[in-house]
Each structure stands twice: as C-alpha cells, then as structure tokens.
Design a protein that fits this description.
The protein is globular and about 45 Å long. It is an alpha+beta fold and 263 residues long. The chain contains 5 helices and 17 strands. It has 2 domains: 118 residues, 2,3-Dihydroxybiphenyl 1,2-Dioxygenase, domain 1 (Roll); 116 residues, 2,3-Dihydroxybiphenyl 1,2-Dioxygenase, domain 1 (Roll). Strands 9, 10, 11, 12, 13, 14, 15, 16 and 17 form a 9-stranded mixed beta sheet that branches. Strands 2-3-4-1-5-8-7-6 form an 8-stranded mixed beta sheet, covered by helices on one side. The longest helix has 12 residues.
C-alpha cells in the first residue's frame, strides 16, 4: 500500500464529497472503491463521514449545507493542498490574484483550513494539519490518486499555482495527443492541468478528483448498475494506465483510473 505518514506542503492531501444524498453516495462509493464508512457526529446534528480501507482514511463526505443549496451550488468533490501555515498561504493566494472565499478557520482539533478561488475561477482548499494529516493511502486502487485542473487560462493558472506552492510546470504528452500540463512539487508529480475545450460544453474551471480502481471495465459496469453514468469512454495513457470520466447518482463528476502495473 502507498501509505502516507505526514503531510507534505504543496501536495494534495485530502478530498471530500459534498452531496445531496449521503446514503446513496455512501453505497455508491463504498461499493465502487471497496471501502468502509465511519460516521463522526461533530455537533448541531451535522455528521462528517470518513471513507476508510482497513482503518486507513481515503476520503471524506458531508451533506450539502442549506446555504449552498439555496445558492444553487451543485454536489461536488473538494480538493485540499497541504500548507505549513494557512494564514500565510491564504494571504499569498490573495496577493497573487486569487480570492479568499473562506478565511482561515479552525476545524476542531483536526487542523486549520481556508478556501480560495484561483484567478481563473477554480475553487481549492488549503489545509494546515494538526491531528488530521489527510489521506492515509494514496495512488492505488480504492484510494485517491490524482487531482487535475480544468481551466480556460492555463498560463494564468500555471503562474498562480507555481508561485503559490513552488510547483514547477512542464508540458507532457496527454491522452489523445492533447497537450497536458504536469505540476511537480520538489521533483515529484503533484497535479495536472488541461485547457477546457469548446467541445466539452459549459464546463466551469474546477479541480477534478481521480480514484483508483482494480479493473476499469468492471468498475464502469458497477457505476452504471448503481445509477451513475460513464461520461467519457476509457482512454489509455502510456506509462500511467486507463482512465474514464463518470458521474455518480447525484451527477457529481469524478475520474476513475486503472493504474498500469509495473513490469
């Protein structure tokens, strides 16, 4: 297993789902990823759910807040990047042209977080860990594997994130010959970026989450049997594996990845 023992500044370290139907999402993702769920009441009737595998945290889930529903915010996956100091990171994001939509705040004893919108319109969370470091497993079947930015302005986004986190950007071959921007953090792959294409339709800038699966074809059959749908046919990426874009029963977009096995 690819286990994580401590947060690494500049690396994605957590993902969580905000959904309109917790029980449906619980059944969908626990079946698809082969994981368990643990409910954690945190006060005022609010429950935060952890997806776990063998006692290791792989993701979180919470119900959509009433004010978000009223504003028309759709269910979605959130991505978090680890930072050493959330106040400093939020202030730096603002100085680089981002917008702080939720200022730094304590999340009980677990850590401190802030939410920002980058200059191209994508939302991202910043996480300063205390007792909760984030995912315990990463980069394998049944766990979070990757985060990818879709944006209308790759140049502006690249400048923002490279200055904010110290990432280095480079262009590499992507699926179907599409140019792909790879971000590295201290030399290790950190995230990807694609320009939103006109053929995609009205896609807003966003960070999309990837989860690993043992067998992509079998997983896609499960998705459709459980009320989800396949949005993009499976594609092969040499040296990486096979991927497909799906929606869950609440129409939340997420990528599935069957990782290529080492020879």
């Amino acid at each position: 297993m690819a286990e994580v023992s401590e947060p690494y500044p500049g690396g994605f370290n957590w993902v969580d789902l905000m959904t309109t139907d917790v029980e449906s999402a619980r059944e969908f993702y626990s079946t698809l990823l082969g994981c368990e769920t643990v409910d954690n009441p945190v006060g005022d009737g609010f429950v935060y759910t952890l997806f776990t595998r063998n006692g290791k945290n792989i993701a979180g889930m919470s119900p959509m807040m009433p004010d978000m529903r009223e504003q028309g915010v759709p269910p979605h996956w959130n991505s978090y990047v680890a930072v050493a100091n959330v106040e400093e990171a939020a202030a730096k994001a603002a100085s680089l042209g981002g917008t702080v939509i939720m200022p730094p705040m304590d999340v009980m004893e677990f850590g401190r977080m802030a939410s920002i919108i980058d200059p191209t319109g994508a939302v991202l969370n910043l996480w300063e860990a205390k007792t909760h470091i984030g995912v315990d497993l990463i980069g394998e079947a049944g766990a979070y594997c990757w985060s990818e930015l879709y944006t209308h302005d790759t140049e502006a986004a690249s400048s923002f994130y490279c200055n904010l986190f110290g990432w280095v950007a480079q262009e590499v071959p992507g699926a179907g010959g599409m140019p792909y921007n790879l971000f590295t953090n201290d030399g290790a792959p950190a995230a990807g970026m694609l320009a939103i294409q006109p053929i995609w339709g009205e896609v807003p800038p966003n960070w999309t989450v990837y989860f690993g699966v043992e067998n992509l074809d079998a997983a896609l059959e499960q998705v459709q049997a459980m009320g989800g749908s396949m949005q993009v046919q499976p594609m092969s990426i040499p040296g990486i594996g096979r991927i497909s874009l799906i929606t869950d029963p609440q129409h939340v977009y997420v990528m599935l990845m069957e990782l290529e096995q080492a020879a």
